[in-house]
Structure formats: C-alpha cells, structure tokens
Design brief:
Layout (H helix, E strand, L loop, with lengths): L1 E5 L5 H11 L3 E5 L2 H10 L5 E5 L4 H10 L6 E5 L4 H10 L3 E4 L4 H12 L10 H14 L5 E4 L6 H10 L8 E5 L5 H9 L16 H4 L4 E5 L6 H13 L1 E2 L8 E2 L3 E6 L3 H6 L5 H7 L2 E4 L10 H15 L6 E2 L1 H9 L6 H14 L4 E2 L29 H9 L10 H15 L4 H8 L3 H13 L15 H6 L2
Parallel strand pairs: 1-2, 1-3, 3-4, 4-5, 6-11, 6-12, 7-8, 8-11, 13-14
Antiparallel strand pairs: 9-10
The structure holds adenosine-5'-triphosphate (ATP) and magnesium ion (MG).
Length: 470
C-alpha cells in the first residue's frame, strides 16, 4: 500500500508516517499540494494521501475532484485546528487524523484505504482445490474471471494469482467498477490528457498504465456500463489504450483479472454484458466457494483473524479454547468470510484472560442458507408445521420482522458501540462502515435524543467526536 504524505516529516506527521511504515505501507512525501498533485497525476498506484492541515487540504480535495482523480484524502492536524479540519471534511476529505497520531487509528485508516489483508488460507479440501486451479493458471497470461458471493476472498485469490505469476515483480492495481462513479470510471481506467474535459488541467495516468508490466484487477466488472465495456474490449484486443482526449494510442502490457458476484453469463443472456468481452475475460473461470461449503477452513481462518486483530489493537495474541473452536465450527456460517472476521475481531476485544473462550464468541445471525454439513439440524416430523416454529425458535432474524430497517440499524450500531466501550474506530470496523459514516449516524441519533455511549477517556478522540459531543 502506498501513502503520499503532504507536509514535513520532521514532526508528528513523520511519527504517523513511521507507524504506517511499521504496518507495511510505503511512504512518498511531497512538500506542498502542487507537487503532490503532479505526483498523483503521474502515478496511479497511490492508495491514500495524508495531508497536513497546514496545507490547503480543501484545495487539494477540490482539485482531485475536478481532475477526476479518485484517491482518498486524510486530513491530519492538531485538535486545535478544529475549524480547518471541519472544512476539510466538508470539502470531501475522508477522515481526520488527530495528531499526535494514535496507532489504532492509523491502522484503521490504512485498513479502510487498503481494503483488506492478503494472506490466503486454504485448509478445507474444497478451497485447496480452488487454490490449486488458481496456481495452475497463475503462470499464464490468460484472463481469469473470479466469481463468488460477497466476501468469499475474490481479491485475496486475485493477489495470490498475481504473486505466483511472471508479473509478480510488477504492480498489482485494483479498480472497483461499482465504487467509482460512472463519469469517473473511464478516466480512472484510461487516464486523460490536459484539456480532455473542463477540469483536466494536466495529463493523468489511468489504472491501465499504472498496471503496465503487472496485473489489473477489475472488481465487480458486471457494473461497467456497456459503452465502457466496448472500450475495454478494444484495449484488451489491441493491447493499447487511448487516454481521454489523447491524440494516439499508448501500448500497455497488462494481465487482466476480473471479479463478479453476479452470474455474468446470465448478464450476457439479458443483454447487460457484452458476450465478446465475457469470453475475453473468462478464458479461465474460477469460482470461490462460500464459507458454508468449506467448514474445514473455519478454525484456521478464526486463528488467523484472532492474530490479525490482536496485532491491530496492540493486544497479545491469544489462542482459541477447544470449546470456542467447537462453537465456531457448529455455527451456520453463510458465505461471507467477513462475518467470521468480525466475530473474531469482537472476540479479541471482549476476551479476558489468556485465551479466547466461549464468553467472547458472540455470533451474529443463524443459518439463512444451507446448514453446515455434518452439523445436526432438527428435522420436524410434520413438515407442514415446520416453518413458523423453526423460524421463530432458531432464526434470530424472525423477531425483527415487523420492525423498521432504520430502527434495527440504530439498535445494532448502538449495541456494537456499547460492546467496544464507546471506541468509534473499533465499532466502525466491526460494522464494516467508515468512521465517518458511523459519526454521521451517531450525530443523527443524538439529535433524536438517543443516549450515545461516550468515547473512552484517555484515548485520542477523533476531533469531530469532541466537537459534536457524541
Ligand atoms: N481464504 C482466505 N484467507 C484469508 N483471509 C480471507 C480468505 N478469504 C477471505 N478472507 C478475508 O475476508 C475478507 C474478504 O475477502 P475479499 O475482500 O478477498 O473478498 P471479496 O470476495 O473480494 O469480497 P467483495 O465481494 O466484498 O469484494 C478479507 O478481509 C480477506 O482478508
Ligand atoms: Mg472484492
């Protein structure tokens, strides 16, 4: 992960940079906003920008928006700079990092910006077979279409393929086609020349060129609009791209991996996805099994997440007791590995003593899809009577039916915050939302008169929490 720091590394910002380096980030530094913008235009691989409030963060955020450069900006400064921080956030900065920096916050910010960690775990034979297939095709230049439900590890396996390929020494660049607004996607992919549109004041390199010599992962490819699909197909066929407003093609050597959590063949069938592009991407298809189809991975993944979150939170690594392992194995996991990840993050925070025991394992919802093989489920004698009773007894979602979505969400957020003892960063990570989104919700709840757990004392408190007194 690459971080561009704007400002002097001599003081507290340097301390933040060192913490980021300790977490595996690579740091670039620019003395001012114009230099940083020049760097960002020429290098599509910067994942996040940390900008000292002493610099023009608002101007930076505005320039990035008009030049269609989609990189998150984190404003950094002292709580005394309250007004400039609020202005930066209003202008579109993603987060505010109070200085001196808190290692937990740095970790959370880097994690949010980077997406996720990249260790691949495969203990279950079903998953091992998937990995074997991935490794078999890794060394070729073939495009691979990775399909699977949300959170099944599509990005993890894409990075694995890259790492095992002849391009491993080159860049791995990912672009989420669903997360980038449609009008930015073309410029993000292909870059643009000065004057291509009204905000294009200088040339900008797109992801294709940034991935030159390496691998480009196109996430959620089904969300790309048909016009852009045509341009992508041309780029793949010709092995060259046209920057927006460019005068001639630019040759690129890029291997494409794409992911989808929709049935792309069905999208082709209903005319939403080009068939020729589908065949081009799907030279090799790789389906990632949902967690419920690979129970043998559960405990190994849980151990891995236990270590990861102990590290993130600066806590000692603790093993899972046999009873806790059994509880995790017996739970009816759905597909998304993040559900297990969140359970373990919670467990790491809630555990007491030198092991993670049953009392720290709080499981979310019960099986909604198929039950885990090998785990007994009651088969009622009279199927006609089944639904209501089983649903009401075993399905924790059933009692929620009849309540408003908004109310359920509020209760979940406030309960989670209670569990993290008011720590916003941890609560946001567990909930899978940004710290900013969490704060916005809390502000709304406070305005409605709901009691909000206060932030823990003695911990660096994000500025707007203090400001808004929530
Ligand atoms: N086999 C695995 N080994 C280790 N971690 C995993 C594995 N599979 C998933 N994870 C973890 O689960 C989370 C989700 O994985 P990932 O982002 O790769 O899934 P995805 O299929 O790309 O999700 P989405 O559909 O939301 O894009 C990440 O934190 C990742 O590290
Ligand atoms: Mg993904």
């Amino acid at each position: 992960m690459r971080v561009l720091v704007i400002g002097s590394l001599a003081g507290e910002l340097g301390q933040a940079a060192r913490m980021a380096i300790a977490r595996g980030a690579r740091i670039d530094q620019a003395d001012d906003v114009p230099t940083a913008l020049a760097r960002l235009r020429g290098d599509g691989r910067i994942d996040v920008v940390l900008c000292d409030l002493a610099h023009d963060v608002v101007g930076l955020v505005q320039s990035l928006a008009t030049e269609r450069i989609g990189v998150p900006v984190v404003a950094c400064g002292f709580n005394a700079d309250a007004e400039s921080a609020v202005r930066a956030i209003r202008a579109g900065a993603k987060e505010f990092l109070p200085l001196p920096p808190d290692p937990d916050l740095i970790a959370a910010i880097l994690q949010a910006a980077a997406g996720e960690s990249h260790i691949l775990i495969a203990r279950d034979p079903v998953m091992q077979e998937t990995v074997r297939r991935a490794e078999q095709v890794a060394g070729s230049e073939a495009s691979v279409l990775i399909s699977g439900e949300s959170g099944t590890g599509k990005e993890v396996i894409a990075r694995h393929i890259h790492a095992r390929s002849r391009r491993a020494g080159g860049p791995f660049v990912a672009l989420n086609c669903a997360a980038v607004p449609e009008n930015l996607l073309e410029s993000e992919l292909f870059g643009h020349e000065k004057g291509a549109f009204s905000g294009a004041i200088a040339r900008r390199i797109g992801k294709f060129e940034a991935a030159d010599g390496g691998t480009l992962l196109l996430d959620e490819i089904s969300e790309m609009d048909v016009r852009l699909q045509a341009k992508l197909l041309r780029a793949l066929q010709e092995r060259e791209i046209d920057r927006l407003g460019g005068s001639g093609p630019v040759r690129v050597s890029v291997r494409i991996l794409a992911t989808t959590n929709r049935d792309l063949a069905a999208e082709v069938g209903r005319g939403a996805f080009r068939e020729d592009l589908y065949f081009r991407l799907n030279v090799v298809g790789l389906r990632l099994p949902p967690l419920r189809e690979r129970p043998g991975d559960i405990v190994t993944l849980a151990d891995h997440f236990g270590r990861k979150y102990a590290d993130v939170n600066g806590l000692p690594a603790r093993r899972l007791t046999a009873a806790a392992q059994q509880r995790l194995r017996a739970h009816g996991w759905r597909g998304n590995v993040r559900e297990l990840e969140n359970t373990m993050h919670r467990a790491v925070l809630l555990a007491r003593g030198d092991a993670i025991d049953l009392d720290a394992i709080e499981l979310g919802s019960a099986p909604v899809h198929a039950p885990v093989p090998g785990v007994a489920t009651a088969v009622p004698a009279n199927p006609a009577r089944v639904d209501v009773t089983v649903a009401e007894r075993d399905d924790p979602v059933a009692p929620l039916v009849g309540r408003r979505m908004e109310d359920v969400e509020r209760d979940l957020i406030l309960h989670t915050l209670g569990h993290t003892l008011g720590n916003r960063t941890h609560a946001a990570t567990i909930l899978g939302i940004s710290i900013r989104a969490l704060r916005n919700k809390l502000r709304d709840y406070a305005a409605q008169g709901a009691p909000i757990p206060p932030p823990p004392t003695g911990i660096a408190m994000p500025l707007h929490d203090a400001q808004l007194a929530i």
